[in-house]
Amino acid sequence: MPGGPARAGSARAGAGPGAARGWRLVRASRDAVPPSVRRFTQRARRRRVRAALPWTVVAGVLVLGLAGGWLTYGTGVLGVRAVRVVGAALVTPEQVRAAAAVPEGTPLARVDLAAVRSRVAALPPVARVRASRQWPNTLRIEVVERTPVAVVPRNGRFAVMDGTGVVFQDRPDRPAGLPLVRLAAPGPEDMSTRAALEVLAALTPELREQLVEVVVEAPARITVRLRGGRTVLWGDASRSDTKAQVATSLLGRAGDTIDVRTPHVVTIR
């Protein structure tokens, strides 16, 4: 055909250097990226890392805090395994533990220390209580017991009381070394009890050495009985220090009754 060779020639001519070229995608080498662009990219990356770092730290702290809180408050990992009792003599450690009423395995952080102190302080011989946590698994209870100062005979037994008038023991026998006080109703709110304790505190060593008992019929009718059948009429508890000094100075005088109810006008008979 006449047009055939011409079209073929034209096609070959189009394949020469002047013809339109197809595009190819190639990967640029590192050297093909300008240094300024690389530096900008690195700085941007560092800024992103620095910006995210605080939030990463906060998130980590929150996760650790939540995990620690759960272990401390929500599980028995740090639970009570032992209750250590210190200072108990009039009461037994078992009595203190029973009064504290803290079940084994209770998370140590959740133990109500104020409630423990209150429950243990309800034991009559206990004057003060300290409760503390000893990590990881121990509750420490330190008790300070009452100091006995006198005994009161009552219904064939002996009530032991401290310096505030609290009766904290009831015994079948009289404890050695404690003065005897005869009262109708011993107790911290009883006026006769407070008067008797005030007189006892004022006695000189000489009077205390000879003391048999203090008899309180009423707050203003107190009698101190000494060995040998001697009696000191005390009256009320006012000016007890002066009365004790005057009575001591008259111990060498003859007479079975020393009346110091009015200490500036003393009689002995």
Summarize the model shown:
This protein has 269 residues and is an alpha/beta fold.
What do these coordinates show?
There is one protein chain. By secondary structure, the protein is α/β, with parallel strands linked by helices. The chain folds into three domains: 44-73; 82-145, Roll (Ubiquitin-like (UB roll)), CATH 3.10.20; 148-268, Rossmann fold. Helix content is 36%, strand content 25%. It has helices at residues 3-14, 35-73, 93-100, 113-121, 191-202, 205-210, 240-249; strands at residues 82-86, 126-134, 138-145, 148-154, 157-162, 167-171, 181-182, 211-218, 221-226, 231-235, 257-259, 267-268. The strands form three sheets. A six-stranded mixed sheet has the order 7-8-9-10-11-12. Residues 1-20 have low confidence and may be disordered.
Helix content: 25-40%
Strand order of the largest sheet: 7-8-9-10-11-12
| Number of domain modules | 3
DSSP helix count? 7
Distance between the termini: 174 Å
Query: Do you know the CATH architecture of the largest domain?
Result: 3-Layer(aba) Sandwich
Low-confidence stretches: 1-20
Helix/strand order: HHEHHEEEEEEHHEEEHEE
CATH class division of the largest domain: Alpha Beta
| Class from secondary-structure proportions | alpha/beta
Record field, number of beta strands: 12
Q: Do you know the CATH topology of the largest domain?
A: Rossmann fold
Q: Quote the beta fraction.
A: 15-25%
**Largest β sheet strand count, sense and barrel closure:** 6 strands, mixed
Assembly type of the shown chains? single chain
The shape is elongated
> What's the Cα radius of gyration?
47 Å
